[in-house]
Amino acid sequence: MNALDKQLIETEHVKTGNWVKLISILKHQFNEWATAALAKEGFDDFKMVYMPVLMNISPEGSNNTELASHARVTKQAMSKVAQELQKLGYIKAKADPRDKRSTTITLTDRGKRLVIKVRLSICSLTEEYRGMFKAADFDKATEILKKIIEYNDQELLHRK
């Protein structure tokens, strides 16, 4: 057995139970849950890839640059998703009065109903999880995840 094969075997334990895989599985489970829940409410044309864009539109509207940043997607990806959401009737776009090169995106009534449904469903799911575990433990886990995200954001800024 060569050194590379030995190292591969020695690191085999990492593929099960590591936090990265657990978060990936949890994200996949959430996507399945949300897709099914939204379909039951009449949003059967909604794809989870739309979620980061749609959920980051402020009540007064967001310009495409701000939205891409908050959704953590490229401007190109955000524009593609925004076009699809506009065709589906979830958002509307108009020229930004402050910057004619930019677009302001707002939610339609259909988009508002979906965002409200998602927010309320997430609150309900959070309370269900808080009931399954000690609420303080669930809240602590949430705080730890926020700190990891903050740390990673800071590290990425320093690497650029």
TrEMBL record:
Keywords, ordered alphabetically: DNA-binding
SMART domains the record matches: HTH_MARR
Pfam family for this entry, one: MarR_2
DNA-binding as UniProt keyword: yes
InterPro entries named in the record: HTH_MarR-typ, MarR/SlyA-like, WH-like_DNA-bd_sf, WH_DNA-bd_sf
Highest taxon, organism lineage: Bacteria
GO molecular function: DNA binding; DNA-binding transcription factor activity
Listed GO biological process terms: response to stress
Domain HTH marR-type: 1-150
Coiled-coil parts of chain: none
Record-linked PROSITE patterns: HTH_MARR_2
Protein's name according to its UniProt entry: DNA-binding transcriptional regulator, MarR family
Organism: Chryseolinea serpens
